[in-house]
Design a protein that fits this description.
The protein is α/β, with parallel strands linked by helices. It has helices spanning 13-87, 90-97, 100-105, 117-120, 161-170, 174-178, 191-204, 206-211, 238-258, 278-287, 314-323, 330-342, and strands at residues 108-109, 112-113, 135-137, 144-152, 180-186, 214-218, 262-267, 296-298, 307-310. It is globular.
Length: 351
């Protein structure tokens, strides 16, 4: 068999031109794809770096919040030691500390009285057992990225709490569950009713409770004042006034309980359905903010559903609710807090 090589000179000029043009186009396309790949990779790395910086900044702010809390605890201990030395014995100071007077004195520096919860709920000065939860199931999970608070009250007709909790769990990936804490807050004053509902939840979500993903907590009845002695406002009927006043106190207690547990706090209600991937959506929206100087991100316009705060701001929010718990409903108070904190004097809330 003979193989015949055809010299280039035998090819037409038009064929040579077409071949050269095709090669050039292939080369240009390759260069463009290569450069696009580099640009895309650079952009992806830049976005990832920006996200990491935002996450690191928020974690540092959370760490600073915890540090301030520890400093307050150390200061209180120092005050107790000084008081004990003045009284002549540590035992005497410990006995005083169990009394209502000592509770108020712990917020005093010399002659300077610091604001505290007893200013807003003075009846607590007469409560020796304090304001620790009346019921609590917790593995002590802390340092998470997201804390989800679900306040609930027993319903006479139909409770959607289990369905809501299941939808929240189903909307998270396994990795997200490891960096999340769900706090189910049973805002009921009858301890027997609380225990009954808690047992049902423990049966339904045994694995999640054992792993620390879900906590159940209920406030003590002593946390709430005698509503019949309070001055009713806004012309509301007694039942309506009691309901909205208690709700303000419910939310305050839940936020105080959740404040030190994670970086962000999301509050929902006990009758919602969570969308799949909602945690990832929230995380991406947080990272997409041009500035970290935001106070609240809203993922639902109804009631107090889908309101996201930085945990370090919960002290401000809970205290504001405590200050005006008798005066207005919680959604009104949140609007007023926005106005006080974010709006300029010459601007209305819409502008």
């Amino acid at each position: 068999m003979r193989i015949k090589f055809v010299p280039c000179s035998r090819l037409g000029n038009s064929s040579l031109l077409l071949l050269a043009l095709s090669g050039f186009l292939v080369f240009i396309t390759f260069c463009w794809l290569l450069s696009s790949s580099f640009i895309s990779n650079d952009y992806s790395r830049k976005v990832e770096l920006e996200h990491n910086v935002v996450q690191l900044r928020e974690k540092l702010q959370y760490a600073e919040t915890l540090q301030r809390q520890r400093q307050k605890e150390v200061l209180r201990l120092q005050q107790q030691i000084v008081k004990a030395s003045r009284n002549g014995s540590v035992e005497h100071a410990a006995a005083d500390n169990s009394s209502s007077g000592a509770a108020a004195d712990m917020n005093a520096i010399g002659n300077l009285m610091l604001p505290n919860i007893y200013n807003h709920l003075p009846h607590l000065l007469q409560i020796e057992e304090g304001i620790n939860p009346a019921y609590s199931v917790s593995k002590g999970r802390t340092g998470v990225s997201l804390v989800i608070g679900i306040p609930t009250i027993p319903r006479q007709v139909k409770s959607y709490l289990v369905e809501t909790t299941k939808s929240v769990l189903n909307g998270m990936s396994d990795a997200e569950k490891k960096t999340t804490l769900i706090i189910i807050f049973i805002a009921e004053l009858n301890l027997e009713v609380v225990q009954k509902q808690a047992v049902e939840l423990e049966i339904q979500f045994q694995f999640e409770i054992v792993s620390g993903l879900i906590e159940i907590v209920a406030p003590p009845a002593s946390f709430y004042p005698d509503f019949s002695t309070l001055k009713e406002t806004l012309g509301d009927p007694s039942d309506r006034f009691r309901w909205r006043t208690k709700q303000n106190l419910d939310f305050s207690y839940l936020m105080m309980y959740a404040q030190s547990r994670g970086t962000y706090y999301l509050q929902i209600e006990d009758d919602i359905v969570a969308k799949a991937g909602f945690v990832n959506t929230i995380s991406n929206f947080i990272l997409s903010q041009a500035s970290s100087d935001w106070f609240m991100l809203e993922f639902c316009q109804l009631g107090f559903i889908g309101k996201l705060f930085k945990s370090r701001d919960l002290a401000l929010v809970s205290e504001f609710f405590l200050m005006f718990h008798m005066d207005k409903p919680v959604d009104w108070l949140l609007d007023h807090l926005f106005y006080v904190r974010l709006c300029l004097p010459d601007k209305d809330m819409v502008s």
